[in-house]
Amino acid sequence: MNVRNVPQKRIGMVVHPERKGAIEASEFVEAWCEKAGYEVLRVTKASQCQGLSLVLSLGGDGTMLRAIDLCLVYQVPVLGVNFGHLGYLTEIEPPELGKALENFFAGEYELEERMTLDIEISRQPRGTSESVHEAERFVALNELVVEKSHSGNVVKLNVSIADTHFLDYEADGLIIATPTGSTAYSFSARGPVVSPTLRAMIMTPISPHMLFDRALVLDSNEAVEIRVLQGPHATIMVDGINRHVLAPNESVKVRSSLLNALVIKLGKRDFRVILKSKFGLTEKSMGSILD
């Protein structure tokens, strides 16, 4: 493991408000920092991240997504402590927290960059002509999802890749995922698992009502535009948060962001080991296939 320069003695915390263990861990961090002479604050908005050397995510993967979203603009690295279930994004378990803080401030850590998505939603304001559109931007670590707003209907989506029309989809929805997000919703929709440090976008249809039902792995420089065709509206989800409802002729464009998420690695967790552990992929469990 590389030894880095000793960081500034200011850290932040993003704490899951409903998990007792996470709240107790935040109190432990506050006491640890007070004893060590470090400044610590609870982060609730992005502007608080300016000047921080580290942000601790105390919760599950959802808390980790929130922490990274807050830290992204100021490029503050995030260390995830797992108080959730799956823990794909988190790095350590709660008993390792004290030692992890010591290692970080000793400069004994790796910094891993994760690709994020730049998402631009183009909508038509109410009461305006079809030629008038307003844009809103978001950044995602896991995925963008364009899906049906109501059960019983499919959405019809016109998809262009690199400014060239690719296909019209009739499906329950469409996912554009990062490699980090390939083990999230995209995986549930039969998308491929992709190494999280790769730069690529995974386009996965959700229950497509058409012959072509496969996921596509795209170059990170290939922008994807999804336009809602005539028919039901579509809901826009960014990292699991409902952002908008798109009407016909409104669109969303997604490309790789210029900003990478910075994740602290302490050499304890390997992506492939985590994958095997979470899905029980041992030689014994695979025996019936291998025999």
Please describe the structure with a list of short key phrases separated by commas or semicolons.
36% strand, Tumour Suppressor Smad4, Rossmann fold, 291 residues, alpha+beta, 6 helices
What does this structure look like?
This protein folds into 2 domains: 10-115 and 260-279, Probable inorganic polyphosphate/atp-NAD kinase, domain 1 (Rossmann fold); 117-256, Tumour Suppressor Smad4, CATH 2.60.200.30. The protein has 6 helices and 18 strands. The chain has helices at 20-36, 61-71, 97-105, 185-188, 271-279, 287-290, and strands spanning 10-15, 39-42, 54-59, 78-82, 110-114, 117-123, 134-140, 143-148, 155-161, 164-171, 173-177, 200-206, 216-219, 224-228, 234-238, 241-246, 251-256, 261-265. The strands form 4 sheets. Strands 7-6-17-14-9-10 form a 6-stranded antiparallel sheet, with no helix packed on it. A 6-stranded antiparallel sheet has the order 13-12-11-8-15-16, with no helix packed on it. Strands 2-1-3-4 form a 4-stranded parallel sheet, with helices on both faces. The mean pLDDT is 90. One of its GO terms (molecular function) is NAD binding. Its EC number is 2.7.1.23. Keywords: ATP-binding, Cytoplasm, Kinase, NAD, NADP, Nucleotide-binding, Transferase. Involved in the regulation of the intracellular balance of NAD and NADP, and is a key enzyme in the biosynthesis of NADP. Catalyzes specifically the phosphorylation on 2'-hydroxyl of the adenosine moiety of NAD to yield NADP.
